[in-house]
# Entry
Amino acid sequence: MASEAPADTIFGRILRGEIPCDQVYADDLCLAFRDVQPQAPVHVLVIPREPISQLSEAQPEHQLLLGHLLLVAAKVAQQEGLADFRTVINSGAEAGQTVFHLHVHVIGGRPLAWPPG
Ligand code: AMP
# Structure
């Protein structure tokens, strides 16, 4: 629920201004900042202010928010000068999720192989 404080993940702490981030975009619904361990020349994370733990926990009421995150991902890619880019949402530990506050990776600036590891 939007009225609750963000969950106490590292991203919650970033949202609350308790630890710094290299911000590239912000609005009422989300924040985007550079990943501390970039996997490509551009690696930005787009996170909702609302602390949804992972995509599999998202509810129908999050439909507009989830669409917004993708539109912001595309806006950030354009801002970063990327014509081509990849978005990734890891949902669950086995899928590679390590921070349990939903986030969209925006990755680009080099050729990206497929399938991912
Ligand atoms: P995931 O593995 O999909 O949960 O992605 C979490 C991402 O958060 C990883 O790529 C980390 O490098 C990144 N990360 C962790 N802590 C921070 C931080 N303080 N600032 C920016 N990125 C972070």
Residues 63-79 form the longest helix (17 residues). The longest strand covers residues 42-48. The CA atoms of residues 90 and 97 lie 5 Å apart.
